[in-house]
């Protein structure tokens, strides 16, 4: 958000500050815990997310640019993750036959084994640390709330 032409900030009310801080603290703790739970599989949460996206993609491959966009990673951040994941043998890069400048991220059999091994533990962790603390109504409310937040944020990213 630009501060040009800005007037005095609209400061958060005490209730707004509590909601914001609780969200920030809980989300950071949740992501750190989910990441720690994947360490026994030698995966990080970003690695798991990339493998999960590729496991659902046709032929377990996706253009690097599309993967970066969906995973909300900069191209340089994705490139760094790819180097680490290629070294681990989970992924490989293949040139795009149509666009000589483009590359595909392709899941290897070792990457498939890694996601298959980690998925049950990850789902159990997500359930125990998040889902099991919510009623069905809470789950629906959270989904609706974050959809309202995500849509304009995604549009901002697309317009950059």
UniProtKB/TrEMBL annotation:
One of its GO terms (molecular function) is DNA-binding transcription factor activity. Residues 16-151 form the HTH marR-type domain. Pfam families: MarR_2. SUPFAM superfamilies: Winged helix' DNA-binding domain. One of its GO terms (biological process) is response to stress. InterPro entries: ArsR-like_HTH, HTH_MarR-typ, MarR/SlyA-like, WH-like_DNA-bd_sf, WH_DNA-bd_sf. This is Unannotated protein. It comes from freshwater metagenome.
């Amino acid at each position: 958000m630009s501060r040009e032409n800005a007037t005095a900030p609209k400061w958060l009310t005490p209730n707004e500050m509590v909601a914001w801080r609780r969200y920030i603290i809980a989300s950071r703790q949740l992501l750190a815990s989910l990441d720690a739970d994947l360490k026994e599989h030698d995966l990080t949460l970003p690695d798991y997310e990339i493998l999960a996206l590729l496991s659902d993609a046709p032929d377990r491959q996706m253009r690097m640019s599309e993967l970066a966009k969906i995973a909300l990673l900069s191209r340089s951040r994705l490139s760094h993750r790819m180097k680490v994941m290629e070294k681990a043998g989970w992924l490989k890069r293949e040139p795009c036959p149509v666009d000589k400048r483009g590359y595909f991220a392709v899941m290897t059999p070792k990457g498939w084994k890694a996601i298959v091994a980690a998925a049950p533990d990850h789902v159990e962790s997500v359930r125990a640390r998040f889902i099991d603390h919510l009623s069905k109504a809470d789950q629906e409310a959270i989904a609706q709330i974050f959809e309202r937040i995500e849509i304009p944020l995604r549009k901002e990213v697309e317009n950059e």
